[in-house]
Amino acid sequence: MSTLAAPNEVVTRALLRAVNVPGLDRPAALITLDNGLDHTKPNTFGPGGLASLDEAITAALAADPAFIAITGKPYIFCVGADIVGLPQLADRAQALEIGRLGHRVFARLKDSTVPTFAFVNGAAMGGGLELALHCHYRTLSGGAAALALPEVSLGLVPGWGGTQLLPNLIGIPAATQVIIQNPLMQNKMLKPQQAAELGIADILLEPADFLERSLEWAADVVRGQVTVTRPAVDKDMWAGVLYFARETLNQRLHGAVPAAYKALDLLESAKDGDFAAGTAAEDEALADLIFSEELRSGLYAFDLVQRRAKRPAGAPDKGLARTITKVGIVGAGLMASQLALLFARRLQVPVVLTDLDQSRVDKGVGYVHTQIEKAVTKGRMDKGTAAKLYGLVSGTVDKSAFADADFVIEAVFEDLGVKKQVWAELEKVVSPEAVLATNTSSLSITEMAAELEHPERVVGFHFFNPVAVLPLLEIVRGERTDDVTLATAFAVGKQLKKSSVLVKDAPAFVVNRLLTRFLGTVFAAVDAGTPLDVANSALDPLGLPMRPLALLQLVGPAVAYHVGGTLHAAYPDRFGVSENLKRIADSGQPIVVDDQVNEEVAALLVVGDQPLTAEQVRQNALDALAQEIRLMLDEGVVAEAQDIDLCMILGAGWPFHLGGVTPYLDRTGTSERVTGQRFLPPGAASLPA
C-alpha cells in the first residue's frame, strides 16, 4: 500500500455498524461510506478509501451477520475513483496496482457466502456504481441524482469490473449504451427509473424512508420471502451489437477516442463469463490509458466543468445582485419561447412575452404550453408543477407589461438597429433599476446601449441552442455595464443552472468567433476548389461532435453568413466572406443529407482550381484557431485560456479528449508554431515532459 500513498486524498471511510432488523435472528452489517464532508464533496475511492472498505468487510464477515449492506452518506453513494490522484501515479506498475486493489476489495462482496446488498441512496458513478454491481442485490433510491459509468468521457474505461458485470446483468445493448454511448453524449446520466428499468437495480424505493425500506426488503430476501429474478441475457446478439457499435464509433470518432475502443474490446471479452480474465484485461487497459494524452486532457476538461464553471473568473461580488421577481422577454419566436420556459421553470416567477402582433404572441405562449404538456406526458413533470408554470407564462403586445419587471431580455432579429430601437422603446417603460439583457450572438453590447439613459444596466446574455440542453451562458460586459448589473446577470445564470463565463464586449464573443473562423477556413478551402466531401471530412481525426457541414446546417447557413459578415467587418484580414456560403443559404436546401453532401447544393458552388488535401484543410483550420485564440487572449476577451476551453466544451460540445481546444493545439505543436508559445504550462493538460 505504501507505493500507492496519496498525500492529498480525502479518505472515504467505511463505517461499520450492526443493525437489528425485524424478522432476522442476528444483526445485519451496515457499511456507510462517508468522507466526512457535505454532499457537495462526494465520496470517492483512493488507496486509503479502498483500504478502509477492505477492513470494514473483514470486520463485517467476522461478526457472522445476516447480510452485509453498503450505503452512502446523505445524497451520495460514491462517485468512483479519486481521479485527482491519477496524475500522481509514477508509472504503469502503480496504475496496475490501483486497478488490482479495487478489483480485489470489490470482489470480496461478489464472492461472499454472506448475502451482500448495495443500498444506492444517492449519486453512484464510475467505481461507485461498479461497487454496487459487485453486490448480490441492489436497492435504489428514487432521489439518486446521478447514475453513470462516465469513464470513457474522460479517456478511461470502467476499470473495476463494470465492463464485465454490467453486460452480463442487463445485456450487451443496454451495457453498450451506458458504458460508451452515454459518456459520449455530453456524459448523459441515467435517472433512477431508467436504471431500474434496465435492471441495474432490483427494486426502486422512495427516498423519504429509503434506508428503512431497504433493510426490510433485504431481510425479506434473506428469509426467502422475496425472490429476485432477473431475465436471462441474450448472448446470441453480442457480436452483432458490438460490430454495430464499432462501426458507429468509426463514423463518429474515426479512432480519436482510444478509451471508447478499449471499452468495446472489454465488453467483447465479457461474453464468455471468465471474470478473472476480464478484470485482468481491465487492469491492463486502465494502466495504458492512465498514461495517455487523452486522459490528461479529459481530466483537465473535467476540472474546468466541475470547478472553474462554478466559480466564474471575474464575476463581481454576488452580494451586489438584485432579486428578480418578474421577467420580460421581447420576442416570441422559438428562441424567446425556449427562454420563457427556462426562466419560468428555474426562477419560478412570472414571465411575460411580447411581440409585434397577437398571433406571434399566442404562438410563443402556445409553444411553452406544448412543452409543459409533453413533460407531463413523459413523466418528467408532475401536474401540480405544470399548472403552476401555465400560470406563470403569459403574453401580450403591450410592452407596458414590463413596467414592474426586474429583468428584461430581448431575442429579436440580429440587427443592431432593431435591437437599439427595442431598448429605446423599453427604457420608457421599465424602471431605472431593471436589467436589460440581450441574447445577441455577435453584436456590440456597448453600441447597443450607447444612446440609452442608463447604459450601465445593459448586459449580454448569450445562450446556445438548444437552450434546455447546452449549459454555457456567455455573459458579456459592455464598456459601461456596472457591477450590480453584472452580479445580477451571474446570479440569474446560476438560478438557470447554466455555467456562466465572463466575456469582454468583442465581436461574436468566444464560441461564435472561433466557430466562424474555423468554418471560414473550411469554406475558403471549398472556394479554392476542394471538394465538399474532402473539406467536410478533413477534421475527422479530431473526433469532433459534428462535421463542419453538419454544424453549418445546425447553425443555419443564413445565420452563419450573417455572423461571418459581422466578423469580416471587424477583422477583414482574418474573416473572409464566402459567396458560396451565401449560395447555400439562398438555396434553402440542406447542405448534407444523412451525413452525405447534397449534390444539388454542391452543383451551385463556384470554385477555383487549387484544391487542398484533407490534411492541408485540417492544418489550416487548426492554425486559424491557434491564431484567433492567441489574439482573443491578448485582447482580454476572457481571463485565461481555460475559459476558452470551457466555452468550447459547454457551448460547442467539443470533447473532453481534446480538453476543449487549447490542450490539443499545444500537444500537436500548433500553438508554438503559429503563435510562438503554448497556451497552457507543460503538464497542465498533458503528460509531463
Automatic annotation (TrEMBL):
<keyword id="KW-0520">NAD</keyword>
<feature type="domain" description="3-hydroxyacyl-CoA dehydrogenase C-terminal">
    <location>
        <begin position="509"/>
        <end position="588"/>
    </location>
</feature>
<keyword id="KW-0511">Multifunctional enzyme</keyword>
<dbReference type="InterPro" id="IPR001753">
    <property type="entry name" value="Enoyl-CoA_hydra/iso"/>
</dbReference>
<comment type="pathway">
    <text>Lipid metabolism; butanoate metabolism.</text>
</comment>
<keyword id="KW-0443">Lipid metabolism</keyword>
<keyword id="KW-0456">Lyase</keyword>
<dbReference type="GO" id="GO:0070403">
    <property type="term" value="F:NAD+ binding"/>
</dbReference>
<keyword id="KW-0442">Lipid degradation</keyword>
<dbReference type="InterPro" id="IPR008927">
    <property type="entry name" value="6-PGluconate_DH-like_C_sf"/>
</dbReference>
<dbReference type="InterPro" id="IPR050136">
    <property type="entry name" value="FA_oxidation_alpha_subunit"/>
</dbReference>
<keyword id="KW-0560">Oxidoreductase</keyword>
<dbReference type="GO" id="GO:0016509">
    <property type="term" value="F:long-chain (3S)-3-hydroxyacyl-CoA dehydrogenase (NAD+) activity"/>
</dbReference>
<dbReference type="Pfam" id="PF02737">
    <property type="entry name" value="3HCDH_N"/>
</dbReference>
<dbReference type="InterPro" id="IPR029045">
    <property type="entry name" value="ClpP/crotonase-like_dom_sf"/>
</dbReference>
<dbReference type="InterPro" id="IPR036291">
    <property type="entry name" value="NAD(P)-bd_dom_sf"/>
</dbReference>
<comment type="similarity">
    <text>In the central section; belongs to the 3-hydroxyacyl-CoA dehydrogenase family.</text>
</comment>
<dbReference type="GO" id="GO:0004300">
    <property type="term" value="F:enoyl-CoA hydratase activity"/>
</dbReference>
<dbReference type="Pfam" id="PF00378">
    <property type="entry name" value="ECH_1"/>
</dbReference>
<keyword id="KW-0276">Fatty acid metabolism</keyword>
<comment type="similarity">
    <text>Belongs to the 3-hydroxyacyl-CoA dehydrogenase family.</text>
</comment>
<dbReference type="Pfam" id="PF00725">
    <property type="entry name" value="3HCDH"/>
</dbReference>
<protein>
    <submittedName>
        <fullName>3-hydroxyacyl-CoA dehydrogenase</fullName>
    </submittedName>
</protein>
<comment type="pathway">
    <text>Lipid metabolism; fatty acid beta-oxidation.</text>
</comment>
<feature type="domain" description="3-hydroxyacyl-CoA dehydrogenase NAD binding">
    <location>
        <begin position="326"/>
        <end position="505"/>
    </location>
</feature>
<dbReference type="InterPro" id="IPR006176">
    <property type="entry name" value="3-OHacyl-CoA_DH_NAD-bd"/>
</dbReference>
<dbReference type="InterPro" id="IPR006108">
    <property type="entry name" value="3HC_DH_C"/>
</dbReference>
<dbReference type="GO" id="GO:0006635">
    <property type="term" value="P:fatty acid beta-oxidation"/>
</dbReference>
